[in-house]
Specification:
This protein is α/β, with parallel strands linked by helices. The protein has a single domain, classed as Rossmann fold (3-Layer(aba) Sandwich), CATH 3.40.50. The chain has helices at 2-38, 81-84, 104-111, 128-142, 163-188, 201-213, 232-235, 250-261, 278-282, 316-319, 325-330, 332-340, 346-356, and strands at 65-69, 89-93, 99-102, 116-121, 149-153, 193-199, 218-219, 222-223, 238-244, 267-273, 310-314. A hairpin with a 2-residue loop joins strand 7 (218-219) and strand 8.
Amino acid sequence: MKTVCSGWTIRWTRVLAAAVLTVVVSVAPNQKIVAAGTAGEKAAAPSDLNANPPEPTLAGKAPAFWVISSRSISWTQLKNPADAVSQLRYFQVDRQGHTASAEEPELQEAVGNAETLWIVVHGNRMSSNDAIRFMWGFHGIVKDMDGPKILWSWPSQPTVRGLARDSRLKAMRSVQEAALLTAWLDRLQPKGRVILVGYSFGAKTLLRAFAESVRTTRVENVQILGGDGETWVHSAQRVELLLIAPAADASELNEALQAGKQVQVPFRIAMTVNRLDPALKWYRHLWTCRGPNAIGWILPCVAAETSPMLRIIDVTGEVGHTHQWQRYFQSRSVQAILKSSQVSIEAACVTQSGVNR
């Protein structure tokens, strides 16, 4: 009897030890990246943007970054992006992690004439808190770079049961978010360089937003995008897209490249490829078993005339078998891509202008 009890005791002890080890291992990366994102600053826990409204203002303090939230906008409202823009919610987050509500005129005044504007779109299955943690991870890399940073926070939290069904729903939502983002940028009309950073489905949103912005704005005399026919890409001095673990199709990438050729604004697209990313490998099964591959998993085929505008960075050896944004942000290659945006762009502008001719 003592032997049996002893065996059960040892077995349960091992199970409990394994469970504790699993929790510690899963929590540790998040703690590490949040600490790195705040760069030693004592950040408070991020506020839930869908809960009670935060403090009304951060009087006189320059925020670490801004947040534009579309989480309260329904699918029905998204059918008319120009009207849905008025339903967006605005926040600012200071360097101590305090979140405060803001108004659109405040943000427009802060970023409208900026020489460089950063817009970051996160991926799937993120709550508002997760999205802010994600932005802190990004902020830790670019905090010393010029220009205000904006997080585009969209309703990507788990919505329906089943990963496959939820992913299909979010893929459709990310397409709708592109139209909403385009409508907002048409109102903002940025005059300086615009750097668009998209992770996972966020990359799909940005590719479509860029392509939509240079399409014909009138169809049978009906206004589609801009109120005066001018789009945000035409008003920007330069546009850069940085696609990290992009969950998008090759057709969306080629559409953006072809659209970019139609404008005189210099632009470039840089993207990562990770041949071991399990989520991106599964992307082809999003709609059917023979769907298109994710451009972040396998090298995409692009037209020869547009290839000079595309830079592909293989991070397979650095990131490995994961889709976690923490691992991608820790990649030296990804950090180098982001930091290269701070380097002087005069030579690149001259080269791109020649290509666009």
